[in-house]
Amino acid sequence: MAMAAAILILTSLLPAAAIRCGALRPDNSTAAKLLGTWLYMAGAAQLPRHLLEMLLIDHGYLHVEPGASEQELPITQSVAMGDQCLTNNSTYMEITAGNTTLVKEAKTQQPVGTVMDLSSEDVLLIQHRLQRERTHLGLYLYARNLSVSRAQREEFETQAKCLGLSEEGIVYAPWRRERCRMEEVERGTSPWMEPSAAVTASPPLGTHTLQGTGNRSHTGQ
């Protein structure tokens, strides 16, 4: 069934009209702000298969750790699908002052995601590009806690629209059953999921069989 994991965003609350559809330009404080555990809140995708995959996700976590340097931050992502919690740690964030913050595949060093610019340090937004016959975009929202404000949701939806993603392509995670635990994600003890060259909110292709539908909505949980 699906793919792997992904990531982030920051600043202080702006009106929707001031939102920029662009990548995060890091400064000296960016690495410290990205560290720690983020809760998966929502995803948006162009590819119908990705939408089906997102509908199977109940909840998830993204954990960003300090690396050997402040320029590289290892990522562990876990998602709950059905009765399983699947984890992937094959990606990392590359932070270079003045440049776009990228998510890269650890083995190939190839960029698979871009950290997008947002107005709040409590949310993280990552744009994913999947290259098949053509480029398919995805956008994934994370937050420090489950109480995401209406303004933050609207900003995510505005960013999705800015990238050409439709409201029908947005799915919010329901967070009904706790299959993945934050402590296990932080310790890296959740069951391992095969690495994928793509960073998305869902596990690698071939992991599961699609079964049913979930919580597709642009209005929230």
Low-confidence stretches are 1-19, 192-214, 216-221
**Beta strand %:** 25-35%
**Main beta-sheet strand count, sense and barrel state:** 8 strands, antiparallel, barrel
Strand order of the largest sheet: 1-2-3-4-5-6-7-8
Q: Helical segment tally?
A: 4
- What is the H-and-E element order? HEHEEEEEEEHEH
Total DSSP E strands: 9
- Fraction in helix: 10-25%
Q: Give the overall form.
A: globular
Rg calculated over all Cα atoms:
16 Å
Terminus-to-terminus distance: 24 Å
Derived structural class: alpha+beta
Biased composition (Polar residues): 208-221
InterPro entries: Calycin, Lipocln_cytosolic_FA-bd_dom
Signal peptide: 1-18
Region (Disordered): 187-221
Summarize the structure.
The protein has 221 residues and is an alpha+beta fold. 14% of the residues lie in helices and 31% in strands. It is built from four helices and nine strands; from the N terminus they run αβαβββββββαβα.
